Amino acid sequence: HVKDHENTHVTFLTDVITSLGGSPVPACTYNFPLDNVAQFLTVAQALETTGVSAYTGALDDLDGDLLTAAGTIATVEGRHATFLSEVLGQLGFPYAFDTPLNPRQVITIATNFITSCPFDLGVLPYTQLTAALPTDGSTKVSTSFEGEEAYAIENTWCQFLYKDRVVVSPRAQCALPPGAIGYVYVFVTSSISPVNMPNSDILAGPALLFNGSHKNN
User: Residue 18: in which H helix or E strand, if any?
Assistant: First the structure.
């Protein structure tokens, strides 16, 4: 059903955009790592979770038919994300609120899977961030990215965006918040200005992590 839903969403949004006098963009070329079932589920989970945040973040900029279309699709995307998380043994609905992302943050995640597009995306992604959950009883999330400030530890921060919260931690500790049980978006910034506010000085990210499972919650 998920594939059928997504195809229907594309057709529906295309029709709405056209009816409002807009021109739907052509398809991009994608590269999804789908070597096995587990990898397929993991990629699908990331895409659906990001999709929920993308639709939620776009609602403020929409009105009329587009707002209704986005709102009705966002709830279905949430069900997809829940289903995939449960299949992977994780928490399907960990928070009371979903987490909005702005277009640049969404594009940053999407470019992990985009090979090329026949049009200008209209926004430049942030630097790609690689992040990994703590291991061996630690609370530190490991982070890495390319660029002049990649190895800067002092005066840089990890920021964790999940549900309706932003938690900031010095990058030297980069401590995963105890309440981040579920999906969590990770950023590295050069200021403590929250990533969901303007001028947050994002150096890299977001990277999307999934923390917790039914075994330990």
Answer: helix 2-19
Give the pairing type, strands 182-189 and 157-162.
Answer: antiparallel
Name all domains of the chain by residue range, CATH numbers in brackets: 2-87 (1.20.1260.10), 118-211 (no CATH)
Cis geometry, peptide bond prior to residue 206 (ω within 30 degrees of 0): yes
pTM metric for this prediction: 0.92
- Write the pLDDT tens digit of every residue in 131-160: 999 998 899 999 999 988 888 888 999 999
| Residues linked to residue 159 through DSSP beta bridges, in sequence order | 168, 187
**How far out from the chain centre does Cα 204 lie?**
13
* Residue at 195: amino acid letter: V
Q: Are 195 and 166 in contact (CB under 8 A)?
A: yes
Within 8 A by CB and 6+ apart from 152, the residues are 171
Q: Which two tokens stand for residue 130?
A: 């690689």
Identify the CA nearest to 206 among candidates 181, 188, 180, 183: 188
pLDDT, tens digit (0-9, with 9 covering 90-100), for 24-60 = 888 899 999 888 999 999 999 999 999 999 999 998 8
Torsion sign over Cα 204, 206, 210, 212: positive
